[in-house]
Amino acid sequence: MNPATIYHRPLSEYAFALDDTHYVFRLRTGKGEALSCKFYYADRAIMTPELEFFCLPMEKFRVDQYFDWYEIRLETGFERIAYYFELTDGKETISYYGDCYEMVGQPDRSDYFQLPFNHRADRLVVPKWTKDAIVYNIFPDSFADGKRTISGNSAVGLGGTISGITDNLDYIASMGFNCIYMNPIFEAESYHRYDTLDYYEIDPQMGTKDDLKTMVQRAHSMGIRVILDGVFNHISSSHFMFRDVLEHGQDSEYYDCFYQLPEHPVIPKPGEYPKYTCFSYVSNMPKTNTANPYLRQYFCDVGTYWIREFDIDGWRLDVANELDDGFLRAFRTAVKQVKKDALIVGEVWENAAHYLNGDMLDCAMNYDFRRYCRRFFAEETVGAETFDTNVSTLLLRYGENALYAQLNLLDSHDVSRYMTLCGENIEKMELSVLLQMTFPGMPCVFYGNEKGMNGNTESEYRQAMAWEKMHPLEDVYRSLIALRKNHPALRYGDFRTNIASDKVYRYSRSWDDKRVTITMNLGDVAIQAPKNGKLLLKKGENYEIIGAWEYEVREEQIHGGDDL
């Protein structure tokens, strides 16, 4: 065995508590290097000269091109755990302690890996409803101003309104969505509304507070939750705080509410870079200093106000990775005190593990899901083996609670439409959506994807909702959303890869006494269709084979039960 390939990190996605008595421990090894792995654990605080270790076998639960992962799901009353791993390849045995592989003599208590204490306060607890959530992302300006209409009559933007969303809640529900995430609706200067002028007012072009209250109430009556977009990393340069800074400079009471300002900041001329920190060098979006106590409390009050007064169900935080950790902790605490099961989603395009330790975010937007799907399905630049390695990255980067709450998206208001990346190929889109609806986490669908909307530029991918357009993808989304809703294994189950070879990808998800298996064929050559279990869904007319760009979904009884 090569010790350099063996890896474990305590108090991370490799070692975490699910609740008071259930733990998960993971170990990575080089692919095929170990035949078996054992897990040794003890009560690290026991008042005896030597620790008493218990031994359990670990399961090899994931394999990709480069690594094997072993896992043990441990139930114990121990609140403090010392542990180590023992690996064998049939010729040699290696004991893997904390930061070393072999010990000379008897190890001391401090030599072992440690889970010092299972603190309730340090565990990430996400709202239970997230596992059942299927999210519809609406860019409000572009969605609707009436029943199945968007007129485009507006001085700024296309004129979508909150009432327009309310008028079409029946459509959203009929598709199967049970959560709406809206891009900003607060008073702003731009059509996109990411330059907030007033966090306590609805943009007049969008409607009124009463419109929002009606929309939320009606959505809730239909079993649909509502999440708002909070833009706290930056504000409009016309916001009263920044206007005061422009007028009074360093003497402004709000001077420290902004990040790295010159003594007397001024709005730059067109084509010039601002001499103050902004969002992406956009001068009309100065960056806030959320470490400032006044501003921190101001935004926390905003977060709780819309929950108390309008009963919204959570916040998506724009540019969450540029907000300071202290603010994220304060915001989470404030929001959860008002509504315990409110969801806090962070816009983090990269690995978000730093923010998912129980004190900042509940989950993050999973842009890597889009990136990996793009390569495998849309562009066909990688094979199934590489894709499965990417899947391993997604499945193993977070602890379980965060994994099942991640927001899995194919596109958003910030990127090209995924249909465009697919070259408007419906088969590629359908397979991507199939994975999205059967993957751990919350599927998030950008408005109009179900109507085959496309676009590369901002004005294109934020175009008006194609209400008049009928598209085959509508039925695809309805059937795949129904599949997810009707089979708990696709919401709660584990994820195991069965086949990842060239153009064939097969995986299964198991929960309780059911296993659901999905087989995809991206190749030109038909493959033999599985025979086991009950057929739930199939693309293709020949039940003996799975043809090019076809798939099937099957369910079988497990744990000794009879096949369905």
> Briefly, what CATH class of the largest domain?
Alpha Beta
Total tally of structural domains: 4
Summarize the amount of helix as a percent range: 10-25%
The value of Rg in angstroms is 26 Å
Fourth CATH level, the homologous superfamily of the largest domain: Glycosidases
Major sheet size, sense and barrel closure = 8 strands, parallel, barrel
CATH architecture term of the largest domain: Alpha-Beta Barrel
Structural class: alpha/beta
Distance between the termini: 43 Å
Description:
This protein has four domains: 120 residues, Sandwich (Immunoglobulin-like); 303 residues, Alpha-Beta Barrel (TIM Barrel); 56 residues, Oligo-1,6-glucosidase, Domain 2 (Oligo-1,6-glucosidase, domain 2, Alpha-Beta Complex), CATH 3.90.400; 66 residues, Immunoglobulin-like. Helices cover 24% and strands 24% of the residues. The protein contains 15 helices and 26 strands. A hairpin with a 3-residue loop joins β5 and β6. α6 runs parallel beside α7, α8 runs antiparallel to α12 and α12 runs parallel beside α14.
Entry summary:
This protein has 564 residues and is of the alpha/beta class. Helices cover 24% and strands 24% of the residues. It has 15 helices and 26 strands.
